[in-house]
# Entry
Amino acid sequence: MSALLNLEDVSKRFGFRNILKDINFSINTGEFVMLIGNNGAGKSTLLRIISSLMKPSKGQINFRGTKQNDNLLEWLRIMGNITHENRLYSDLNSKDNLRIYGNLYGVKQLDSKIDEVLSKIDLAHVALLPVRNFSSGMKKRLMIGRLMLYNPEILILDEPYTGLDQNSFHWFQEYLQQFHQKGYTVLMATHQLALGLELATRVLVLDQQNIKYDVSSEGLSVERCCALLEE
# Structure
């Protein structure tokens, strides 16, 4: 495995408040890393910084050995993310939302690929309905469909299971497993510890503005993860 991302002393302040302080870790190509932490620990802030949606107050991120900002277009090309903001166009329908992203990423045979994705995420029956009429779970499925459409090489996921029903859990878990089996990389923050441990190769625990634990997921239980969060 080779280093895909390397964080060096990444910190974030809002006013006089430290959210993150001197974060240091690397992620290798092909790893599935689960990020856990209590509410307010700074997980979403960290993922937004890694996704380049937010600038750190200090420190830097290296992508494939160079500064992320120096290779930003390549980073954005291979990165797919799910954040708390859905970034969907509410006045457009599912097909048009996917078409925008498909054109942006140069997806070939776009119309047939859109139909295939809508079928997989069980939104084909509402393909022409404006997204503003969707439930939160339907919007989340469309966000996942967007990832399926343009096939990134690394996923940055912030609570991706939220809003999904049990059936959606199943196919989304299969998608993540297949994605990882291709040798691609995942960094996922989730409170769904059991689902995360089914897939993760490594667990990071964020606490007190820093990475408190960085451990292999092998043999790690939900109970032990909870204990790490409480220590």
